[in-house]
Amino acid sequence: MRVLGYLLLAILPLTSFAAKKSAGDRFENYLSKSLSASPVKLDDTSYEDLTRAPRDFTVVVLLTALEARFGCQMCRDFQPEWDVIAKSWVRGDRQGASRVVFGTLDFADGKGTFQKPVRYDFTAGPQSAEQVYGWITRHLPNGPKPIIYRPLNYVRIVATTTIILGAVSFLSIASPYILPVLQNRNLWAAISLIIILLFTSGHMFNHIRKVPYVSGDGKGGVSYFAGGFSSQFGLETQIIAAIYSVLSFATIALALKVPRMGDPRQQQVAVM
Hints:
Helix content: 55-70%
Radius of gyration: 37 Å
Largest sheet: 3 strands, parallel
Structural class: mainly alpha
Order of helices and strands: HEHEHEHHHHEEHH
Strand order of the largest sheet: 1-3-2
Oligomer: single chain
């Protein structure tokens, strides 16, 4: 027993020295993994190994649930932003001077480790990489902090350029046909008249009040007109707009068409 006690006393300092050494080894191990694929994908075992004491480096882990069965749309929306942060950090600190490791722990891979001492609240809505990056840097000790780097979205650039060039080409080709239509005074007069009729008949009132299209009259029938002065139905608006339209076009015809008729009798009939 005394020999065993001496052995234990001899082993403990060695294990303490090995633990200090293993912290650096763990950081180098996970740093090499980050250089090949960042953030590092974790599970229960690797999470415990990465975060256990003693540890002389910082660990930033995103706890997420990406599978559709968990119904976390925010997790799937934020994952590209998280990848931007992790890849930007590794790109700006390939030697590991900041001693920070970024990892991702999915709920499917680590159901037993969904806890951490410092948490970021995602309930405020969609978060960008810059917002989370600022939160991370505030909780880190003094040291190098690589800047955010967003890779160029070549698909968006090509699509935007193609759309602009297509629009310019279309306008240059179609302008001889479109400009006469856009400069037609009768067309704009008709559009203005239609808009005026819609609003004077109560179209906007229906949208604001969300009025019913028709209503029952209490006797098994349908009521098309609402009683009182501060209510109306949707169909009532359409009927009033149709009446206003007929009267408007009749006025236009009297002013423009009837004076051009050569036969006095046709003019009288048109007026009547």
